[in-house]
Amino acid sequence: MAVAFDNLTLSQRVYEHLRDEILADHLLPGTELSEVALSKELAISRGPIREAMGRLAAEGLITMRPRRRAEVRSLTPQELIDAYQVREALEVMAVRLLIRRVTEADLARLEELIDQMAAHSAEGAVREFFTANVSFHELLCELSGNPKLQEVHHRLEGEIGRFQNRTLALRGSMDDSLTEHRAILAAVRLRDADRAAALTAEHIRVPAERLQATLRDSAASDPSAPGPSAPGASGPRPSAPGASGPRPSAPGPSGPGPSAPGPSGPDSEPAGLSRS
User: Fold this and answer.
1) Which residues have a Cβ under 8 Å from the Cβ of 248 and sit 6 or more positions away?
2) With 73 labelled, which of 32, 42, 59, 111 sits at a CA distance of 20 to 30 A?
């Protein structure tokens, strides 16, 4: 049954739906997305779909193909490391910029997100924890007052967010992450730019450095190995919405598509990392 969309937000709703499906691994790397098929699936014109797919391509979540098609993108381990390194530079800059402009109301917003993380950590709710975590880091960038910084950071969060289980396994635990966020906020509250920047850099650098160490160990044990792989990096491509096989439901007027199933645990291997 076709879903009715609000014409004023068609492109935004299609974008949010597809982005949510990709980040939740409902659309695995290699999945083909057809503009024509999605148009039939959602009973809307191709224009909003084309615009939404363009935004997803700009964020590095899909790769455009000929004949109005696209493919959900995979990342090599090195590309993920590169994304962390750029994110570190952006957030360090954001923290230095916000120090001189942050208000008590801003600090309260940051503290509220940390409280949410603490509640989710206590419940073992990994996906909800990461949602609050992403909101915390995006708020840091928002408070920098630099829209271009926010734009680039948002794209990187999309790429990195697909690997939240791997990130948690590399970092240690939700409790470790929570402690680091509290320390960053404490330094910001004291208007200590150097300490806040150093803590932010260290916080973001941890998973990247541990992933690099994992790759070095893998290469040392098997020099011929091209690198770690993940489900979806090889083998036949999964079916795409509007092509063949079961199709995810489209978002209704009240919000994006269906929520993802619960995570399989911090030690699970995320889809999307391809052989380097």
Assistant:
1) 21, 26, 27, 241, 257, 258
2) 42
